[in-house]
Structures are given as structure tokens and as C-alpha cells.
Task: structure prediction
Amino acid sequence: MKPTHIEHIGIAVKSLEESIPFYEKVLGLECYSIEEVKDQKVKTAFFKIGDVKIELLESTDPEGPIGKFIEKKGQGIHHIAYAVDDVNEALKQVEEAGVQLIDKQGRKGAEGLNIGFLHPKSTIGVLTELCDNK
Ligand code: ZN
Result:
């Protein structure tokens, strides 16, 4: 597996509405998309900086993954997503390397991209996502 770049950095926030002004007004980025990912019980907001995106994640359900994350750790960096040519192939390769997976197979994430998560137990504490590089 050889990632082409960091696709995005996922940041857990309590409220998109309260967080977006920092990214837009202070950092001068533009929110180009807000999308609900029902599967993940989140609403996402995306910003682009060069090839890299910032993905803000607001929980839509306290029992969802972001709701639980914020309750345990508070707001902050939630995951790093690496762009790869083929998510399913990359998941197979990291599993063969002994990494514990959250997703054995790619699934649809925000922006319609194929994504898969590796378990933070196997990735030195950083929740790691693999993501299509399209
Ligand atoms: Zn992500």
C-alpha cells in the first residue's frame, strides 16, 4: 500500500454551526459542502486546503461514534484519512500486515467515496481511515 496524500483530517465538533465561522472567518477557508452521513450518525462540513480537506463531524446521535468520542475525549482531531488507489486492496494488505480492521470491506462515506477504517489499537492511537483518491 502506498497512500498518495492525506485526503482529509476529521475533527469532532459539538456544533457545525458554531465551528464553521472559525474555519471561514479566521482561517479564511470556504465550507463547500455540508452533508449528513446517516450510516455514521454525523453531519459533516468540508473545507479544502490544497489537496487536503478538513472534515468537521457533528454527531446526530449521542450513541453514534462521534457522540461517544466527544463524551469521552471532548472536541478535537478524530481521525486522519489517507488517499489510496484501491480501498479494498489496501484494507487487504494492511490486514495481512497484522493490523486490526474496523471495516473489512470498503463502504460509502461522505462525498460518495469508498472508505475503510483501521482500528486505533493497531495504529498507535490514531484512528486511521483509508479513502479513495478520486
Ligand atoms: Zn473521514
About this structure: The domain at 5-132 is CATH 3.10.180.10 (2,3-Dihydroxybiphenyl 1,2-Dioxygenase; domain 1). The two ends are 16 Å apart (CA to CA). The pocket of zinc ion is lined by residues 8, 10, 55, 79, 81, 129 (CB under 6 Å).
